[in-house]
Amino acid sequence: MSVSVLSPTGPLGSVSGLLQVVTLLSLVLLLLKAAQLYLRRQWLLKALKDFPSPPSHWLFGHKHEFQKDQELQHFLKWVEKFPCACPRWLWGSNFAFQVYDPDYAKVILGRPDPKSHEPYRFLVPWIGYGLLLLNGQTWFQHRRMLTPAFHYDILKTYVRIMADSVQIMLDKWEKLITQDPYVEFFEHVSLMTLDTIMKCAFSYQGSIQLDRNSHSYIQAVGNLNKLICSRLRNAFYQSDFIYRLTPDGRLSHYACQVAHQHTEQVIKLRKADLQKEGEMEKIRRKRHLDFLDILLCAKMENGHSLSDQNLKAEVDTFMFEGHDTTASGISWILYALAMHPKHQQACREEIQSLLGDGAFITWDHLNRMPYTTMCIKEALRIYPPVPNISRVLSKPITFPDGRSLPKGIRVTLNIYSLHHNPKVWSNPEVFDPSRFAPGSAQHSHAFLPFSAGSSSEGQKKWILPDENHSGARPISLQQL
Q: What is the dihedral of CA 218, 252, 146, 134, to 10 degrees?
């Protein structure tokens, strides 16, 4: 009689062998990745040899150089030490080639290089692929389609709407200052610019500023701005999978949902209005359509309407850029003038003499406020609402001083540093509106608050009149 004995070593041995194979493969892959990163870093060091920067750690880059709250000020020391441009190493082989010279900026912005994927990809879950993130032929088609929305004839009709929105904000301030003389006005300015863009570009009826539900959208946008800035500086947050598991990732997902609910409701309401009898006929008779009506009525070159995804992306993009960038610019303008009461008083006197008995600033007034315009530009120089933009070189580039970079390098135009470069602006930290006096000589690319070139034309056409009007009106009525 034989007895069969089952030995546990068989299955365990096979599991152990499998683990050894997996471990060995993991080590090989890890070594290959390390070799790849090493070779990439060596190639970058060679490509950037003509552009010195402070010594960096091979893994942590220049992280030790920057304190969290002093980043801008510290980098300005680099601007003085390293002319025109320098690389800032973030971690490993990840770096940003910082440009802060007008001649360099002119060369970069005069090329058709695509937007850099790396920093902008964090915006995709929020605003999708609208004009801000598109490249190539698709960007050109969307831009050509939307250009009529920024025609000066249609922008002129918006000035009275802007005036009404500003007046609602000022009425709120009048009530608030009876309770506390200090008002944190950024949220109020954000609601005002959102109110303006909703009425002008999205045919919205009602007042966003008086609707408490709109505050959640403003808060979501504020949270997303902070979360994206935080993510850009965290090496571990670069992975979408890891980021989604973190508290910041979950908060970002929720904020995106809130933002999308707002824009989807805007589209839904306008589509419902267009279904009403006779409404489409009114639209066809209009000489100039607003932003959303252009999107809803548009036909692409293939004869098809915009997909829902593309429609939402353009609405999310313009909703964000049209109100948040504008609100940031207006808030900094008011802050700058509050810090310089003499200039503020000169602006007030100019605006009041221009208005006379008139209650509102009109389109024609905007070009007749030279000193106020000078102050607004100087505020935007010191506090640019768009601090930097990024491109990836599609072919080698040679700069005016003879230095060059190869294809594939990510270039960041550091607008803040350009505006504070002492070789471009004398005493750059001093608030001096005379820099922008009529007839003053400036490099064409020394002042770029909203970038330059065709990609920013629509943004400038919308934001500059809004900032001039919305910044001038509070100055004329209130002591900041």
A: 150
For residue 53, give both structure tokens.
């920067």
Say if residue 108's pLDDT is above 50: yes
Q: Which residue reads 């190539």 in tokens?
A: 136
Identify the residue with better confidence: 304 or 43: 43
The pLDDT of residue 466 is above 90: no
203 pLDDT exceeds 90?
no
Q: Compute φ and ψ for 388, nearest 5 degrees.
A: -160, 160
Task: Tell me the per-residue pLDDT of 12-46, one tens digit each, with 9 for 90 and over.
Answer: 567 788 888 889 899 999 999 889 888 999 999 99
Q: Which residues pair with 103 in a beta bridge?
A: none
End-to-end CA distance of the chain: 104
Dihedral, 366, 369, 371, 374 alpha carbons, nearest 10: 10
Nearest to 384, CA basis, from 431, 341, 333: 333
Kindly report, residue by residue over 131-170, the tens digit of the pLDDT: 889 988 888 888 888 887 777 777 788 888 888 888 889 8
Half-sphere exposure for 266 (CA within 13 Å, toward CB): 33
Cα–Cα distance for residue pair 318/332, rounded to 1 Å? 21
From residue 395, alpha-carbon distances to 119, 273, 423 in Å are 20, 48, 29
Q: How confident is the model at residue 457 (pLDDT cuts 50, 70, 90)?
A: low
Q: Nearest Cα to 335, choosing from 141, 150, 123, 480?
A: 480
Residue 111 CB partners (closer than 8 Å, separation 6+): 391, 394, 397
Q: Do residues 372 and 352 touch, judged by C-beta distance below 8 A?
A: no
Largest CA distance in the chain: 119
- In the numeric block, the tokens 């920093």 are attached to 119
H or E stretch at 201? helix 186-201
∠ CA 342-343-349, nearest 5°, is 90
Who's near 107: CB < 8 A, 6+ residues apart? 397, 399, 400
Contacts of 350-355 with C-beta under 8 Å, sequence gap 24+, read 351/472, 351/475, 351/476, 352/476, 355/476
